[in-house]
Amino acid sequence: MRALFFASFVATVGCSSPQAAPAQTPAARTESAQPAPPSGDAQGDAGAGVTAASTGDPGATPAAGEARARYEAALAAAERGDFAAAARGFEEAHALRPSVELAFNAGRMYERQADVANAARWYERVLAGNPDPTLRADVTARLASVRDYERRRREGFAAPPPGQDAMAREAATWFARGTALYQRRRFADALRAFEAANQYAQDRIPELMFNLAVTHERLGHDRDAVGAFRAYLSARPDSPDRADIEGRIRRLQP
Predict the structure, then answer these.
(1) Which CATH architecture does the domain made up of 18-152 adopt?
(2) Which pLDDT score is estimated for 182?
(3) Backbone φ, ψ for residue 43 (5° rounding)
(4) Which sign, positive or negative, has the C-alpha torsion 162, 237, 211, 199?
(5) Rounded distance, CA 179 to CA 158, Å?
(6) Could you give the angle at which helices 83-96 and 62-79 cross, rounded to 10 degrees?
């Protein structure tokens, strides 16, 4: 399962304030990363992604034990790809032992289901919980991504990335021109504009790859559309619309 979660989270058993519970630094996004457990002492192998619970700690409470059980059930559901059940489990664990880590896990599961409203709700809760700068930057980017996905579902094409920092000025100009032409249904002209933007872009821009793909798709260029959709998924592997894009690729292939 692609990099979805924090590798470990240490919450002081019996602590009444979620902000007082110390959390380890999020691990790099790797395929083996796991959701953060809601409680337990710093025992076990943190690198494995799970912090072992302390069964003999006199400060343990029924709520803490139930939160861990809900967390572990959610983890199992996520591992088997049942993201709806995983989201419910992380929400239930969060209700018992609130933490920004569990809020992140719930948001991530909704993102995997392309449930924009609930993903945004949980990501906003993370940001309201005073996360560390690394987590704040990650969640801010994810929140922008799910909102862009919702807008794309309505309008059918991607807006330029926030700030346009990865684009040269000329590329941004051509991107805007292509967008305007696409909206006027001048797809051949829009394609030429997006291709010009791609020549000037300093990096592979996911939004540009998406727009190239949908414009090729409109023009009946199935092979080129498939290539651009794959480039989009390569540039944004955790996109909430991944399942939809993969379905479009299958339909376009002979």
Answers:
(1) Alpha Horseshoe (1.25)
(2) 92
(3) -120, 165
(4) positive
(5) 8
(6) 160
CB-side exposure of 212: number of CA atoms within 13 Å?
A: 26
Domain positions in the chain: 18-152, 160-252
Q: What angle do CA 222, 149, 87 make, to 5 degrees?
A: 120
C-alpha angle 124-94-133 in degrees, rounded to nearest 5:
45
Q: Is 237 helix (H, G, I), strand (E, B) or coil?
A: coil
Q: Other CB atoms closer than 10 Å to residue 225's CB: what's the count? A: 22
In angstroms, rounded to a whole number, what is the distance separating the alpha carbons of residues 78 and 156? 30
Cite the DSSP H helix spans in 156-241.
169-183, 187-200, 206-218, 222-235
Q: What is the CATH number of domain 160-252?
A: 1.25.40.10
One fold for 18-152 and 160-252: yes
Model confidence pLDDT, tens digit, residues 209-218: 999 999 999 9
Predicted TM-score (pTM) of the model is: 0.51
The structure tokens 């991944």 sit at 242
**116 near 147, Cβ under 8 Å?**
yes
183-222 burial by CB neighbour count: b if 16+ within 10 A, else e? eeeebebbbbbbebbbeebeeebbbbbbbbbbbbbbeebe
- Structure tokens of 148? 């862009």
CA dihedral sign of residues 132, 135, 138, 140 = negative
CB distance 74 to 82 below 8 Å: no
Residue 117, pLDDT above cutoff 50: yes
H helices, E strands: number in the chain: 10, 0
Distance (Å, whole) CA 101 – CA 92: 13
Bridge partners, residue 129, by sequence: none
